[in-house]
Amino acid sequence: MTSLRILHVSEAFGGGVLETIRTIANRHAASGHDVAIAYGARAETPEELRAVVDERVELFPLGWRRAHPLSHVRSGRRLRALVNTWRPDVVHLHSSFAGVVGGLVLGGSVPLVYTPHAFASRIASLWVSRFAYGAAEKLAISRSDVVGAVSESEASEAFALGARAVVVVHNGIPELDDLPGEAGPRGRRAPLVVALGRMVAQRQPEAHTRILAAVRDVADVVWIGGSPDPSVASAVEHAGVAVTGWLPRPVVLERLRSASVYLHWTKWDAGVAWSVLEAVALDVVVVASDIAPNRPILDPRQICAAESEAVEVIRRVLEDPAFADELIAVQRARRVDYSAALMVSRWLQVYEGVVASGTSSRRTRTRRSRRARTPREDERR
CA–CA separation, 236 vs 210, rounded Å? Predict the structure, then answer.
């Protein structure tokens, strides 16, 4: 297998996007490829990135700040200069801003893969925002060689926005590597219901809180995570839901492991969320909102259209061990498609394919250019 030079670009380098990129980058670097990450720092970006990114992966901060329009221009220039010097075989643009800026400054010069990690035009609340985001996303798509969607629903949205080449690579986590689709009895757990992550609009903290508060009489309820707005976390705690604040990922997984139910009541996700995959890996029953990315990995009985329905399902899971075991069996059967090993392998296939296609296209353009010269033009030469 030929070694590739792979450059990942992300303005939104935090949360699930960071986990996805670092998993891909670390493993590709470990298998002999040259890998780099060009990134913009967010509040949730770890201060010590080297602690989570393999030393073989090169890191290039771009000084990207979403709130400052000039920052996009400067970061675009830095990115173009980086590509001219680092000379990657393929560039993977993650999220909308990287897709637009990267597409504008790099399109046509190097093979580009664009992964939206959720199309902003599909989740914006105002029609003006939807229109603006949609125009930007169409531009990012048109400048990329292929859209790498993380779910079938995101792939459908890409086609609706005009994409011609789309591949689907599901998110995957290391905890699902080598886990069997079937396993022994889960064992009874203490009644504990948890939510995970940042208390932001996507995660609907008010709805999460109402559901958790409604089952406090039969279980302990905890939100593992925190909020960039202290008043939001305070409101959650005031409703009787404990809030842990930000914790290291190993500690989060250990807390999650002891839970009976993980409540995932998001407004949207691009693909199966990392937290859902983590719960599935640890045999925690997931009760989720009715959005497309949740459907492939969960039993229909775990997906709820209304808060009252979610409360009923959680109560039944806590009170009926046989019902909980049925849902766990479905999660185990479906989780085999969401390992980090499978995700990393599939992304490499995408990179190899787009590089090969780009090389073939350049050769074709060169041959056509040569054939297009007339005898008189050849005489001039």
Answer: 9
pLDDT of amino acid 13: 85
| SS3 label, residue 333 | helix
| CATH number of 146's domain | 3.40.50.2000
**CA separation for the pair 114, 92 (Å, rounded):** 6
Token reading at 294 = 């949740």
d(CA 149, CA 155): 5
Instruction: Please tell me the pTM assigned to this model.
Output: 0.85
Q: Is residue 379 part of a domain?
A: no
Domains in the chain: how many in total? 2
In a domain, 378, yes or no: no
Q: Residues 207, 307: contact at Cβ < 8 Å? A: yes
Query: In whole angstroms, what is the distance from residue 174 CA to residue 170 CA?
Result: 13
Looking at residue 310, what is its pLDDT? Answer: 98
The secondary structure of residue 284, as a DSSP letter, is P
Specify the amino acid at residue 335.
Answer: R
Distances (CA, A) of 352 to 294, 346, 349: 29, 10, 5
**Do 189 and 328 fall within a single domain?**
yes
Instruction: Tell whether 21 and 129 lie within a shared domain.
Output: yes
Distance separating alpha carbons of residues 91 and 54, to the nearest angstrom: 19
CB-CB contact of 118 with 108 (8 Å) = no
Q: 225 - beta bridge partners?
A: 197
pLDDT digits (tens, 9 = 90+) for 154-166: 999 999 999 999 9
Report the distance separating Cα 270 and Cα 149, nearest Å.
8
CA contacts within 13 A on the Cβ side of 159: 8
Domain that holds residue 240: 175-337
108 in the Ramachandran plot: left (φ > 0), alpha (ψ -120 to 50) or beta?
left
The SS3 call for residue 115 is strand
